TrEMBL record:
Key words, A-Z: Oxidoreductase, Peroxidase
Domain Carboxymuconolactone decarboxylase-like: 11-54
Protein name listed in UniProt: Alkylhydroperoxidase like protein, AhpD family
Organism: mine drainage metagenome
MF GO annotations: peroxiredoxin activity
């Protein structure tokens, strides 16, 4: 199975995700808590790609 390449297929969405990550990095939320939030969001969105990433 080939992975979906967000950067090539939807570059504007990819850029928005990168900007959002930079904002989150500056938010003061500790790294472990942020990973748990990302995992839960991936579960809610039924995104196997994201779950695999986190």
């Amino acid at each position: 199975m080939v992975r979906f390449n967000y950067r090539k297929v939807v570059p504007l969405a990819y850029d928005a995700m990168i900007r959002m990550q930079k904002y989150i990095d500056e938010s003061g939320i500790d790294e472990q808590t942020m990973e748990l939030i990302k995992i839960r969001a991936s579960q809610i969105n039924h995104c196997a790609f994201c779950l695999d990433m986190h």
